[in-house]
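## Example record

The block below lists the input lines for one assembly entry, exactly as stored, with component labels intact.
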Amino acid sequence: MTTLTAKDNLPKDHPVYGLKTPREVRSLIRKGEWDFYTKGLAMGYTQANLVVLPEEDAFEFLVFCQRNSKPCPVIDVTDVGSPEPAYTAPGADLRTDLPRYRVFRNGEIVDEPTNITDYWRDDLVAFLLGCSLTFEGALLEAGVPIRTLEMGIGTCDFVTSVRCNPSGKFHGPMVMSMRPMTPAQAVRATQVTTRFSATHGAPMHIGDPSAIGIEDINDPTFGSAVEIKEGEVPVFWACGITPQTVALESKVEFMITHKPGHMFITDISDAEVALF
Amino acid sequence: MTTLTAKDNLPKDHPVYGLKTPREVRSLIRKGEWDFYTKGLAMGYTQANLVVLPEEDAFEFLVFCQRNSKPCPVIDVTDVGSPEPAYTAPGADLRTDLPRYRVFRNGEIVDEPTNITDYWRDDLVAFLLGCSLTFEGALLEAGVPIRTLEMGIGTCDFVTSVRCNPSGKFHGPMVMSMRPMTPAQAVRATQVTTRFSATHGAPMHIGDPSAIGIEDINDPTFGSAVEIKEGEVPVFWACGITPQTVALESKVEFMITHKPGHMFITDISDAEVALF
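Predicted structure tokens for the full assembly:
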């Protein structure tokens, strides 16, 4: 249950790919007609990681995000008890508008439902964190290859030996996504993603995987291995799955997240979320 | 009590100006030997706005900062009850290391002490917010004039008609600092300050003061008027005094801040705080 594997059976001719606006896609997801990856949907709009916590844990978690802004860049926080992300997608409902969720209890994944209506409580707060899908479009435009896209793979993410700064009960390792490219492209990618501080920003690491505790670059923790071609180096960005590994290590009593790759699609364009 | 006026009697030959490190300056302030502006002290190190609140208000305030990241860019949050900003100045004490404080009760300023040792409680949380003094050095290096420095004025800040996004009990108008410059310099200043998102980032407004509710550009709410020369336009940045106007309007039960201009000096260099 803890590994995201490539879904080769994605219904590529599904009408969801013809929908242009986030609202249309969310409506279809809300009706239960799409429970797959959100990559490639409503292109040009910012997708987000979800974290839901009881109010009593909300402050410590928000401080955790402040202390770890590369993996956990907060783009919206709901009012206590409200499932509506009023600043990034007014009218949306975070209980139903993601394709699939994960429910954590005491540090274990206990459910992966397609909605969390039955789990919702008046004391819950939802956090949306930026997602690196946002800057992948900008990287492609800058001539930087996105190998996962080329290979049709959802993601290639590693739990690293880099420790997050703790806050109260929240502690754990940082997850990073990896993209292979030439050193010159790594420079360009650093420039391009620097503007996207709300969606993980500049890389955390370039080169030697063992320097960040990765033993086998061909064995990612989440997703599938991507090919590193001759002359390319692996480049690592902080990843929004980090709160999920934190939930596991910290044995958080109750937390709901998205299932990796099954993101919330906001009404904010990728250009809008770039540094302003 | 609500207006910051230029102190013409700043002891310019005081040994504090010879101190190089933030730790040395903080030590002198802690001993009560400096209760003036911090502008020009420990040059090259990031100064910060202070907000102290009871734990019960801390989450709503941190969400307020997330929803208003231009005026309220959070650079450190202490653990509950701890006066030590462990990430930006380990070993410092926020109860004693600022030259002067402001104590708010029910939306009124009730005290401006030189330390808050007697006010400190185990349930208090301290927030440090970035300060535009940080990017003024970068602006000078880029050839952009800082008129307040030229004129020997502490600051030139306005309460505007721009409303902050509310969070729970916290609501109020945004305060902005104003710097006059040519349109070409305004473009350069936008580029330079974009990298300083942790210290208010790019301008909020360029030009017509009435568009943001300012009736008389020569009558700032805080500080003193600065000369706008022929061919110059006023350029406005979000200001870290904003939480203080929010405390007044929201009638916050209990909040402690720095007195405007009397900042906390962190151990983080101005270069370090720039976008990474």
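Chain A is about 20% helix and 25% strand. The mean pLDDT of chain A is 93.
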